[in-house]
User: Fold this.
Amino acid sequence: MSDESGVGGAIAALFGAGPAAGFFIYAGIKTKYRNRHARYKPEVAVQHEVKDVQLQEELTRTITTTKLRIEGDNSATPHVRAARVTVTKD
Amino acid sequence: MTADNAAEASSAEANAAAAPVDAAESLHVATPEEGTNGVNKCPQCGGSDVAFVAARAVLVCRFCRYEWQPESLDAALGLSDNIGQLSGTVTSTNAADIEDDAALVTVKCSGCGAEVIIDTDHNLKARCHWCKSVLSLNNRIPNGAVPDGILPFRISKAEAMASIKAFADERKRFALPAFAESFKPENVMGVYLPYMTVDGNIKTRFDGMGEIMISSRRVNDNKTEYTVNVYTLGLDMQLEVDDLVVETASSKANINSEVSTNNIINALLPYDVKKMVRFNANYLGEEFTSERRDLDIDEVEHFAAQHFLTIARNAGAPSVRKFRRGVRWDSEALHIHGSRWTSVLLPVWLYGFVETRRGREITHYIAVNGRTGYTMGSVPINWVKARGLAWGAAIGISVVTWPIAIWLALADMGS
Assistant:
């Protein structure tokens, strides 16, 4: 093939266009009608004051990767709990 | 259970001065008394027939037309003060643990002496069947039905009906036929649901990894390699949280319920709880019902802890913004130095529809925040129609694109 990846990509896109459109229409209807992800958003709705923020950072290694983001990135989902959670109180 | 022993307990609490919140042993703030449990009289004429006028947010005596403003609970209890000094678990009078689960409460009518039963699962007032006095529960009773505060309805039934109709109209096309056929916005119910407001003096620590890209190299058209510095991160912070809200009815607390769309009601939050007033059963009037709190603080504490962590994680985001490849938090630690809990009834206009699917029932709600008018809902879907459209689109587009794809593939192979 002369331009293998370009033509291959276009063929894949053409094959995938129909099923993708069907999937997005179905998912769109479900989202609009059922609102399953609607929830209270205390992170933006509740008044709070942050004090004494301290960040410790330590460079541990340098790696080479083909991934665009860190694996397991959860920085944009504050309502999803991390793998380990501990809660204590006075 | 009778209201007398409950009233005794609550008056003893009320006599104690509102304790300073910075002392570890001071774990209680007394909610001011509101009239009595029984006949709740107009301060002007002593009439017992009192109504709430939502348009002016006042109570009015139906006999002498005297109007009075309710007392702000936030100011009375200092609920916005000293959050940074909170220590231990501080509760207001009616946020105390439930001691008796019985829903039926017997109230002695002070007008004629008759005993009247109030079903606190649905209401907090009743009319004496002998002398027609209106009897109400306004102070703490051991079954948790009477809250410290209430946020009265501001949105009228007509406004709620219009919002619910508009919401359903936008979703008519793929709605289940049974829903569309039976939809009557006038069936919307005004209900006060039980919640707790929580203030928190908390400390959090998050541990994880963050990455910063140093350079990138294009290997081929499909592949890019990134050279990345990996950091271990630790983030400490202190937070003062004011008026977090958590559900305290077990039927509504699980927002991932399989039998009802509780997340819809959860999504109506927040409310302007700074404006809550001391509870008075007359806010319920003839039009509204109330649901009884059946969860104690220790049963909903973990919901508050989850929300505290969510708030802290979001608040910490600017500190780690330079890690542009993202951050993975592996552990979260929350320490609650102090929290302050107040029970409150919040107003919801609720429309429900029960869908039976594959032998299972699920209740869909369309709900309107009784203060702001914010509307959220779940409309049951006509799956046959929705899937039909999705398949139709998939096949219709594929009929055009697949021959082109095949032609391209053959042409590419030929070359």
